[in-house]
Each structure stands twice: as C-alpha cells, then as structure tokens.
Amino acid sequence: MGGTPTDLKLIDENGLRIDGRRPDEMRPLRIEAGALKRADGSAYVEWGLNKVMAAVYGPRECHPRHLQNPERALVQCNYNMASFSVDDRKKPGPDRRSHEISKIISEALTHVVFTEYFPRTSIDVYIEVLQANAGTRCAGLTAASVALADAGVPMRDLVASCAAGKVAGTIVLDLTKEEDNFGQADMPMGYVPTSGEIVLLQMDGDMTQEEFEKAIKMDIEACKKVHEVQRDALKRRYSQKGESPEYAAAPEAKEVA
Q: Which of 73, 120, 142, 230 is an S-S bond match for 115, by CB 3.0 to 4.6 Å?
C-alpha cells in the first residue's frame, strides 16, 4: 500500500478500475482439478494473471515422528513463489512472507479436514505460484482446497477465498497488482460457505468501520462464487473418475466468468 503515481488513475470518472472492472467485479477464474498425475490430489488455478498449482500428498506417516499427533492428522502447507513468477526475479527459497502464508493456509485447511480420521499422519499441501499478480494467497488457498478434495481427503466443505480492499477511497473486490501496490487497504478472506465460518482474515491498510463491513460482505459474496467454480471443477473431475467427492454437499453450482 502506498502513494499512487500521478499518471496512474486507479478509478476513472465512470467508476471503472484500471482493468475496466466494476468495483464489485472479480477477475476471470478457471480451476482444473487433477492437473498432476503423480500427486494424490492436485488443482491448477488461473485467476486473472495469477497462475497457481497445488498438490496434495497423504494422508501418510508423519515425519519427523516427534510431530505425530496420536489423535489426529497434521495438515502441513508449503507455499512458494517461483523465481520467475514476478517481474523482478525473486530470490529462490522460503522467506518470511512464504512462511506466514504457509501457516495461515495450513490453519484454514485444518479447520475443514476431518483430521481425527487419520491419527499420527501428515497431509502435505504444496502450493507453487507460477505467475503472480496480487491475490496469490487467495488463489493458493482456493487451489489447495480443491486439491485436497481431489485426493479424497474427507472435508466438511471446501474453503473458498477472495480479497476485498480500498482503492482511491472505493471498496473494491479482487485487487490487481497496481491496486494492491498503490491502494489504501487489502483484506484477504477464507470462507466456508456451508457453515458461514471465516477461517482466514487479514488486513493490510486502514478502513473505517463502515468500509470494513462493506468489504466483508463483498468478500463473502465473492467466496460463494468461487465455491461454485471449485465445485464445478470437482464435478468435471469426478465425472471422469465415476466417483463422488468427500466434502459436504452444497447448492447446484453455476459457471462464473
């Protein structure tokens, strides 16, 4: 978040954003379940200019053994941005940001997985950002949730994720890189539609109480749409396999542009 360059107009006189979207409009979202053959479960997400791959391995014996929980599985997440995912080459390997995002995604997924079914095991989730344009933690959580379902891991429901924020004094949905860099606030959310629970919520920047409540509502409505696209991806995948997913049933889904 920071000052806007004088030649960059984030919201024009017609109320449209830098990429032509309305304030409450998401970027195009496409999800493919089962994108990798050698993982137990996987998903590929294209969300605007973001391209994210998620892979799941397990449940399998947890190593090192001192991390084993005799009562439940451990959901471990590894979020990484490829060196070539951003304009300025990123230094390879984990950094403070990737550790933070790995932790919050792990906690969000633990909330919906029936970990008590698999004591002493680990469910390992790997998220690789191949191309980044703001909102990668939301895309990563969305992809990871689909990958878990693709792996057949029993879940209460999928976790859908999206971010709202404040740009040029306007509450907007699904920020781009320019909006994230030069806007006034960014608020990613992870949401469980069937229970209405928020399992991830962060904010960078400042909003008034009224703006915060508007952003929350905007995030929730967007997460419901993301959830529909997640379910459609799994429907296509399971129709090919002739099976049914393990997560809780939800209303009939519709494709979202």
A: 73
Q: How far is CA 147 from CA 6, 71, 241, 253, in A?
A: 42, 24, 15, 18
Does residue 245 sit in helix, strand or coil? coil
Question: What are 62's two structure tokens?
Answer: 């947890």
Cβ neighbours of 6 (radius 10 Å)? 6
Q: How far apart are CA 110 and CA 102, in angstroms?
A: 12
> Is 29-241 CATH 3.30.230.70?
yes
The amino acid that residue 244 corresponds to is: S
- With beta carbons less than 8 A apart as the criterion, state whether 187 and 219 touch: yes
Residue pair 173/48 in contact (Cβ under 8 Å)? The answer is: no
pTM for the model: 0.89
